[in-house]
Amino acid sequence: MSANLVEAKAGSSKRDFIRYVEISLREARETSYWLRICAALELAPLEELSALRSESDQVARILGAIVVSSKRRLMAGYSAFAFFILTFALLMS
Q1: Is 52 in contact with 38 (CB distance < 8 Å)?
Q2: Mean pLDDT, rounded, of the chain
Q3: What is the pLDDT of residues 59-73, one digit of tens each?
Q4: Dihedral of alpha carbons 53, 59, 63, 64, sign
Q5: Does pTM top 0.85 for this prediction?
Q6: Rounded distance between C-alpha atoms, residue 61 and residue 52, angstroms
Q7: CA dist 9 to 5, 20, 69, 71, Å?
């Protein structure tokens, strides 16, 4: 997960950033899944697994919020650019 976040930070574009954070989000959700499996099989003390799952869920929520806000900003940028092009086209006609 952290390797993808490093890649996101170094991404060459907003789309790259979002893509890598989405991969990290999927990995956080997968981690939570495996922790549930470990708890069901009683492979570790339930208190420890519960704390780890809680932390994994928090990380997933944070990453989800980053993805949503990044996509909104990306779409807002596209909207502003489209508005600029439309205004320019109307002024030129």
Answers
A1: no
A2: 84
A3: 999 999 999 999 888
A4: positive
A5: no
A6: 14
A7: 6, 9, 15, 15
Dist. CA 29–CA 58, nearest whole Å: 10
Residue at token pair 């989000």: 25
Q: Where are the domains of the chain?
A: 2-92
31 touches 2 (CB < 8 A): no
Task: Read off φ and ψ for residue 12, nearest 5 degrees.
Answer: -85, -10
pLDDT in tens, 19-32: 989 999 999 999 99
Residue by residue, what is the 3-state secondary structure of the chain?
CHHHHHHHHCCCCHHHHHHHHHHHHHHHHHHHHHHHHHHHCCCCCHHHHHHHHHHHHHHHHHHHHHHHHHHHHHHHHHHHHHHHHHHHHHHHC
CATH class of 2-92: mainly alpha
